[in-house]
Structure formats: C-alpha cells, structure tokens
Amino acid sequence: MDGHPGPAPDTVTVLWCTTDGDERRTARSLLLRNAAGMLGVPESEVWVEHEPGGRPYLGGAGAKLRVSVAHTRGALAIALTGRAPVGVDVEGVRELRAESMARAWLHPAEAAWISGLPEQERSVAFLWLWTQKEAVGKALGRGLRGGGMSRRMPLPEHWPPGPRTPSVPCPLPDVDEVASFAVMVGDGRHVVGVALHGDAGDGSDGGGVRVQVRRISSGART
Predict the structure, then answer these.
(1) Which has the closest alpha carbon to 17: 89, 65, 78?
(2) Which of 24, 37, 72, 127 has a Cα-to-Cα distance from 108 of 20 to 30 A?
C-alpha cells in the first residue's frame, strides 16, 4: 500500500450533500467510495467497522484514515483525515425555541451570547453551537455524555458568519487539544460542525490544519 497517495497530513476533507431519503445507507456508500478514492485503492479494499460505542472506523486500506459520519433528515456529511480523531455533524436550519433551549442546556456564556442576538438569528446560532458540540463529542469518542451540551464552544468574533469566513478550527476554552468550527452551507439552509481531537494547534491558524468543506452529489467521489 505504500504506493498509494493517501490523505494530505494537514487536511481535513468534509463532504456534504442533500438526499431524498435513506441518509444512513447513502452516507456509508459515500464514505467508502471517497475513502477509496482518497487512498487510490479499489473500494473493495476499504470497509466500515464500529467501535463498541457505535463510532464508525475504516478497516483494510482505510485504517490510515480517521473518519466521522453524520446525517439528518434530507442531508448528510462525512469527514476524512489522516491527522487526528475527527467529528462532524450536520443540521437543517429551522425555527427553534433557541433562547429557552440555550438557557436549559448550554453553558451560561453561550446562552447569554444567543440571547444578545436579534431574535431572527437565535435559531441559527443555537444550531451553530449544537453541531460543534455533537462534532466534539464524536471526536472525543464519548458523544454528549458527561455534560457535553454544556461544554463551551469557541464563540465567533463576528456574527453572522459570511460565506467567506475561514474554515479554521479554534480551540475549546475548557478542553485541551480539541478545536472546532461550524460553517453555513447550502445557501444557509444547513449547518455543518467539525471538530479535531489532538494536534489541534494553538488556534491562531488551526495548527496548520486546512479544512475543505464542499458539496458533492450523492454519487460523487473526491
């Protein structure tokens, strides 16, 4: 396998797409197809296995990749990297009781930030934090157990984030060696959160990590 190109060591590839249903099966198919394409091997040389807690990982030639999978109604996202444990989450933008949900579940600093935003921005802001919390839980391998919803995420310097906002992971305030970020995709109809655990850098430039977030079709290969 040494002749295969393999993943760029400083890159996290995040792929997302909309779906017409059966997100779980489509996500698995896309993960295998794109992992094989990234590694330059036949798809038959890569397969999906699961840890006792349910987190997917790749076997065979795919063992050199760290991966994460997320799906919601009508959309899915996968993350692949050779650098560090990674987590990804995706949510469709929708109206929520964001202020009361933030007070009940989030860190007080996050709840205060959401409350200070214009009302029409609060649901998106809640999901912007939520997807990162889910992604961090996946990167850590323990989900949202043990207070994951109240775990503080880095708050943005500017809101709302524009389409040109850099996809740079920022360190979590209270968790060592974990960095996260979120990005609006699909003309603002979905939010994708991404997190890295280990070798996350100092946050000034993401520790040299380049995160590529791009939309693909449900049949596409990287």
Answers:
(1) 78
(2) 72
Model confidence at 222: pLDDT above 70: no
Residue 52: per-residue pLDDT: 87
Q: Which amino acid is at 82?
A: G
Count of all residues that appear for the chain in the document? 222
pLDDT band at 143 (very low <50, low <70, confident <90, very high): confident
Strands 46-50 and 190-197: unpaired
Q: Give the distance between the most distant pair of CA atoms in the chain.
A: 54
- 76-101 burial, b at 16+ Cβ within 10 Å, e below that, comes to bbbbbbbbbbbbbbbbebeebebbeb
Is residue 12 packed enough to be buried (19+ CB in 10 Å), middle (13-18) or exposed (0-12)?
A: buried
Q: What is each CA distance from 124 to 35, 158, 202, 212, 213, in whole angstroms?
A: 31, 14, 27, 22, 19
What CA–CA distance (Å, rounded) separates 107 from 101? 11
Amino acid 158 reads: H
The answer, yes or no, to whether residue 205 has pLDDT greater than 50, is no
